[in-house]
Amino acid sequence: MAFPETFRAYQYESYGPLENELKIQSNVPQKKLGAEQVRIKVHSASVNPIDYMLLEAVGQLFLGKAPSANEPFGIGFDAAGEIVDVGKDVKRLKVGDAVYAITPFSAFGTLSEYSVVDEQFVTNPSNLNFDEAASVPLVALTAYQGMFNHAKLQKGETVLILGGSSSVGMYAIQFARAVGARVITTASAEKAEFVKSLGADQVIDCRKEKWLDVKNTGRFVTILPMTQPVKEAEFGAQLISEVHVHPSADKLASITKFIEAKEVKPVIDTVYPFEKALNAYAKLKTQDGLEAMPFPKTYRAYQYENYGALMKELKLHDDIPQAKLGSQQVRIKVRATAVNFIDCMLMEGLGEAFLGKTPSANQPFNIGCDCSGEVIEIGTAAKRLKVGDAIYTMAPFTAFGTLAEYLVLDEEFVAIKPSNLDFNEAAAMPSVALTAYAGMVRHAKLQKGETVLIFGGSSCVGMFAVQFSHATGVRVITTTSSRNVELVQSLRADQIIDYTKEKWLEPHSVDAVYDCGVEPSAWNDGAQLVLKNSGRFIILPMTMPVKESEFGAQLVGEVYNTDPSAEKLDTTTKYIESGKAKHIIATVYPFEKVLDAYAKLKTYHARGKLVVEVEP
């Protein structure tokens, strides 16, 4: 297979801080191939703490020499790719084989487009893609040798793994579970469920609890250099040794068997483009990289197969297959969601017009546009978010489906959850806050000192419209019933009109009218009378036919499409975190009681948002 004479690789000419010394070189010459070596076109590589430890601290000690401008050092031990050339004595592998490899200290340099490695350090797994395969060798071998070569773990024994959510710890848990050992591990509280999903039987919160008693026949194995001097064993337990990895294709083949048997799986945090290797090391050094969280193959979600009465057609299904993740998408574990009138409208009246298609038994439709939760997986091109982020989102019409345990959505629609809201509170926000914001800011273009009349100040959209307007410095007048007067006063409305007893305002006295869906004929029936001749009228939605403007006020339009985006949600977050706007929740329902939430919604008497808690 053809290959270029030169290639790109990361190298360093001096020991020192990685971010200063590590450079990408674009004209590195191909090495001559030894008789027992293979040349690999590297598709994926991974970064490890040992990389920067060698560069910044222990390189001279471990390698016995220093890099220079004439002889720069490569970096990286793990690689996955395709063999493009083989030495004359290579027996096992051939050109075209998909492989993964670990290099010894004498040959590291996998963070490059090509790598020459002895055949003995290379093998070929069958069920991993290149990214997955590149994440395996060093950490899996370290865990494998610790569990089996050193601790010699047997079925029925108990192992305590310190650092179960570390890259090595994750494999150690899985190897131990695979041989039938009982696994106890330490991890932070937020990672407890993750390590349990890998097979841990018991998790000790490393921030709050001490370890357990150890049997006097126990064995202690560490991957870290021992603190000196070493205290002698007091109770008979044995200090085996530190784990020094001795790479070989045989050991990689043993690991491959575990992986192909699905007893062990690779876990990836983030995939970076080659040009962003320094970003990967920066992330590694923070030790904040939360592992890609596991998730089930199927999940529960509400769907409908026909348009019609929501209470009749909407069903909870418990075997929905996980969607494939696109490169710019994120997978969300939904913690809470909310019900909205648009859900009912799409199912019962407007679905065909808005969506341009109908549901069926083979292609049922999902429901719901608001949710909050956690990111558990990110696509290869997702840049802003990371696994473990607490988020909230409004899905666009094309991706409805938040009334579910899991959701796949383009990253552009997902924002970090306001820091001062829990998941239920955050789920109450997106669609109503964005609708209010679109009406007040984008359509009405309200300015400080103006006056706005909001029809329906106690509606979910109206409550945010009142707060956003007040925060802008606008005088807020709103309509509501007498039972909701105190509620809208608490949101800082300046004047309240009881629509059950009073009509609106003096002629031509307000700059904007925002109808939150409660006075559909307002433009035709009298809104023009209260608007100044420069006034703006916004509604969701309009009653037809539309009467022409009589006095110069402008019918700006209907707020149908709020064009959801993370950027707009970030703006909303600023209002929330600064205390200028707050959510109002009427009731929180369990996931199984969604139909009760819709029944309440349809009464039009909920004082605030109806939230569904998917996972407590």
Describe it:
Helices cover 27% and strands 27% of the residues. With 616 residues, it is of the alpha/beta class. It folds into four domains: 6-135, Quinone Oxidoreductase, Chain A, domain 1 (Alpha-Beta Complex); 139-265, NAD(P)-binding Rossmann-like Domain (Rossmann fold); 298-424 and 592-613, Alpha-Beta Complex (Quinone Oxidoreductase, Chain A, domain 1), CATH 3.90.180; 432-558, Rossmann fold (3-Layer(aba) Sandwich), CATH 3.40.50. Strands 16, 18, 19, 20, 21, 28 and 29 form a seven-stranded mixed beta sheet that branches. A six-stranded parallel beta sheet has the order 24-23-22-25-26-27, sandwiched between helices. Strands 7-3-5-6-8 form a five-stranded antiparallel beta sheet. Residues 211-217, 223-228, 235-240, 288-292 and 549-554 have low confidence and may be disordered.
